[in-house]
Amino acid sequence: MGRVIIIGGGAAGMMAGIAAARNGHQVQIYEKNEKLGKKLYITGKGRCNLTNACDLEDLFRSVVHNPKFLYSAFYSFSNEDVMELMEQNGCPVKTERGNRVFPVSDKASDVTGALTGCLKHLGVEIFLREEVKELGIEAGRARGVILKRNGRFVEGDAVLVATGGLSYPATGSTGDGYRFAGQAGHHIAELSPALVPFETAEPVVKELQGLSLRNIRAAIRKSGKVLYEEFGEMLFTHYGVSGPVLLSASSYVTKEIRKEPLVLSIDLKPALSAEQLDARILRDFEEVKNRQFKNALVHLLPARMVPVIVSQSGISPEKKVNEISREERHRIVSAVKDFRLTLTGLRDYKEAIITQGGVSVREVNPSTMESKLVKGLYFAGEVLDVDAVTGGYNLQIAWSTGYLAGISADCS
To answer: Which end of the chain is more exposed for a tag (fewer CB within 10 A), N or C?
Structure first.
């Protein structure tokens, strides 16, 4: 039995604390916020999408960077293990569309409450409003931490860094873990906001602000090459586009969008081929053949989308439907099936769900989460160079890596 010091009381840190305490260690968690799991309170719009109930193969497929590194972590503590732990600690869960898992109560506070209760039951010491200044490393081994408030050295047999990334800095994610890793000699893979909305060049998005579209297909291209393509939901904002399908897209195109603007093509009717859509438009036009074009697409598209598509088609809004030619109809089809916007950049860390990049996984043992450079030093969660799409997958990474680091903590 030894003393395990955990820096950070978020998802990964709390799970590491539970695992290490169950393994018989004396555990101390140092959290600079006034409560544990502060970021959890805002995940899933306050409902906390705590994992995804997919099979393990889909879990790996949902990881954008370094999925193979997570093999031991996911198998050591799976999504089913997370759900079971929540249920056992008084937080029943439910599965919704897309296999997203939430607490039955729809309250993120029930997730943090369950984990905090479990930590206290296991005798884990929790120090709130206590910031760590630096690691205590001696002769190639982590020996403890130095506290910022009073400069006191706290001795430990193993130190676990679970400080999160740079996203949502108001929750305390200010990149401390990268500084600690650098102090230990680790390389930090390039950092970027991820699962974050896009900014666009076209002012038309302001007219569509707040409009949510379901069942669309979004494709992002660079010089004609498709970088990302997915079916799902999106949202227009005053500065650009957001919503699940675009948030996930951001994780795949961070490097490219830094170099140059990208093209977003939105298929508003992906269930219909161009020929089927043309036939549908013809039927709609038959019913309103004496109307003006600007009033003829109300059954096909959301009301706020109609004037935008009318404008994109290049056809006069006042033109009578029965005067529209076949060639003009094909322009309408093209505007609906290939509505284009220019993506100019990503929003910043304040709006990013996660941070892409982090401690290089080449320098961390995937079977234990221990540093290959400093004995007794472990990493877990967002501080590592692993990330996934939206849907509960990033929290699963935090739970799994936290658990594996906690049970692996070597205090010998």
So the answer is: C
- H-helix segments, 288-364: 306-313, 326-337
Beta pairing, strands 26-31 & 125-128: parallel
Rounded to whole angstroms, the Cα distance separating 346 from 193 reads 8
Q: Report d(CA 324, CA 281) in Å as an integer.
A: 11
Amino acid sitting at position 381: G
Q: Are 173 and 165 in contact (CB under 8 A)?
A: yes
**Residue labelled with tokens 């906001």:** 193
pTM for the full model?
0.92
The type of residue at 397 is: I
Q: Where are the beta strands (DSSP E) in 8-117?
A: 26-31, 51-52, 63-65, 93-95, 100-103
Residue 74 predicted with pLDDT over 90: yes
Q: Is the pLDDT of residue 411 over 80?
A: no
Residue 46 has pLDDT above 90, yes or no: no
The pLDDT confidence band at residue 133, using thresholds 50, 70 and 90, is: very high
Distance CA 181, CA 362 (A): 13
pLDDT of residue 222: 95
d(CA 99, CA 16): 25
User: Could you tell me the CA-to-CA distances from 16 to 162, 213, 217 in Å, in that order?
Assistant: 9, 39, 39
Interatomic CA distance for residues 280 and 285, integer angstroms: 9
166-206 pLDDT tens trace: 887 777 778 999 999 999 999 999 999 999 999 999 999 99
In contact, 398 and 406? CB cutoff 8 Å: no
Integer angstrom CA distances of residue 202 from 59, 208, 334, 356, 358: 36, 11, 18, 27, 33
pLDDT above 90 (res 1): no
Strand order in the sheet with 51-52: 51-52, 100-103, 93-95
Half-sphere exposure of 215 (CA within 13 A, CB side): 6
